[in-house]
Write the structure tokens for this entry.
Amino acid sequence: MKKRTDVVVGAAILAGIVVIVVGTLWLKGSGFGREEIELEARFREVGQLLVGNTVKLRGVPIGRVEEISFERGGDGVLVKMRIDRDAPLPEDPVVILSPESLFGDWQAEIHPRAQFPRYAFAESAEPGVLPGYSLPDISRLTAVADEIAGNLAVLTDRVETAFTEQTAENIRQAIENIQIVSERLTGLVATQQEAVEEVARRLNETTATLSEAAFAVRRTMEQVDSAVANGEIAAIVGNVASASAKFDSLSMELLRASAEFRAIAFRADSAMQAMGAIAARLQAGEGSLGLLLQDSTLYADLLRTNAILQALLKDIQENPRKYIKLEIF
Amino acid sequence: MNGLWSAPLAWVGRSALELSAGFGRFGRFTASAVRALSDTGTWGRQLIEQMARLGVESIPIAVFIAAFTGIVLALQASYTFTGAVPLYFVGALVAKTMILELGPVLTGLALAGRVGANIASEIGTMRVTEQIDALETLAYDPVAYLVVPRVLAGVVMFPIVVAFADAVGIAAGWITSINLLDLSTPEFVRGVRLFFDTFDVRYSLVKATSFGLVVTLVGCFSGFGAAGGAAAVGRATTQAVVLSSMLILVLDAFWAAVLL
Amino acid sequence: MSIRIWEVRKSFGARVVLDGVTLDVDAGETVAIIGFSGSGKSVLLKTIVGLLKPDSGAVFVDGQDVGALRREELYALRRQVGYVFQFAALFDSMTVEENVAMGLRRVPGMTEAQIRERVEESLRLVELEGYGARLPGQLSGGQRKRVGLARAIATRPRYVLYDEPTTGLDPVTTAVIDRLILKLDRELGVTSLVVTHNMESALRIADRIAFLHDGRVRFTGTPDEVRSSEDPIVRAFIEGRPELAQEVV
């Protein structure tokens, strides 16, 4: 009887300890026998990443963030991760931090560097520490987009007052070009799966085409010398408006078609970078107005992207649920 | 001083004195229990039996409470998380609430009733039937013989009982989620793991340990203080349950303030 | 080898229970303390084993001041003293055997076999052989008192203190218990102090009787001296006539 009590108590205590230990390990998500390795990456900042967030490779969870610390004697942040030993890391891996959902959970994704050539990764002098890049979160994206849109609005105002009739013909030509490009883009959207870099490349091509047109404009300007009819400008603006309306619907299509919100975030970020670069180019010119006139195709370019952006922003601001629904719900 | 005022003033004064005297007695009692810890020969053979009575026999009630708490948590969480929050958060809420709060506190309160009342009535009866005096005359230190094994059993076994309660609560929440809610096991597990921290388990166990200490110590104290007959035992039992339940809630707030 | 009670005073709140009690019990002697209910007999008994501390005065057992002993010394002393409680105070979660064995387990160097043997012997002394496996709840009042007695004497103490050993028992059982007390005194040679308010018992078992009244020892003497006492309170007690006591008060 006494002996039975001893056994029962002993069994209860042992079972309790097993429940505690196994339960804790299970809840932590670190199974037995699974071998893990430690991985470290350097970032300029880590957004809203927390210890315990998921580490993914090609969308598959392979580990967790173990520790986040300031770089000793540097301006970076070091993130330690614990991942599956068997995870097939790509050649020249980089780590990108991004929101996993709109609920503030972030994740660290391991990608080959070649997939994101545009991002300025925080390289580390130490061997074995992966370069990292932290994606801006949605609020910061919209803020940046707002700022760029503001800059563009100022620039377009300036351009509008500076335009003369002599440029009108060429601009009309340019607008036709844009329409062609927009049709191309529509096709692009239809195929849908093309990489963001591809879009950017085509946009660059378009810009190049437009630059050629701009050269023609300049030549025309050197020869022609007469006043501008206000009606003409209005017609041009009308044309541009219809073109941008087309883009508007195009971008709507693009958004609606997108299955993944995060993909939009990625694309928006690339677009934003391209946009920023354009804006920078504009403002870095020798006397911005003169440069604009030399390169008047940019005007159309800007007007168009402006319209897309504003439509996108307006849409995001008015119908946030549409985007949120995409992945989260 | 006229009679109108002196009566309530006297009452306040008397109550304050009684309260501080009570604290003093409890302090002395605790000190004697600590001192009696060295008397291993006396409490050693009692410990296992008390562990079985206070701990192992409490597991069914704790598990029962935890199971239903887990079910209710899962259902109410899904009811709350309509639309705006993904359903897998049910797992997070069940696990987090169960481990941090409801596991230890509900178990503690249930055991304050079960264990606290058991101890207080047993020791109270021993007190009024002179069994404690009898222990003294047989050269046993009653504190070492009665109090120490119970308190130690409480301190050791409460965390064990709470561990079962935590586990069963989460399991009940899981079973509810996959059967009554549109949730799959991986989703639930994802939610459970989402906000989990090893600290949570330590926090739960520290709370459980302190509840075990309070429930058993207050039960013993109340029982030892019984003087008179059956009514005194009844009063001691009530006092033990009420006092230890209150202390559990106070301690709960204390740990939340200190550890979180 | 004696108990000396010297000027012991004890009060609970405003109520003075013992108001300077002085009493000597010599080795081998059986002294009965009688007195009205609530005259502090039990309190006096408890001060002897240190269950209660006197407010003033002192109790010396074997020349040791009980109130001044350290814990270990007090427990060592208690092993020399058996205490029979008024309501037996058996541990009701334990069997009779375990109850009787409780004190023995505190005796250093006693093996399990020796303990069992001593338990049997003690139960035989109180004529309860074969009752070892029962629980106290299964016993009658008289049997419980006898188990209490067996428990008190199991360690073979040199002193046995009886707190109203026959209260609430029928006359036959009372006589049986009295005979037991005498037998234990004889066979074990113990010094006994018996608190009772049963005059017959006192006269039967005591070498000397002390009469406790108003917190003091009002009278001591042999049973014969008690019988011939002219003190009205003592007479009132012996004859069961309250009016005699009333005259004095």
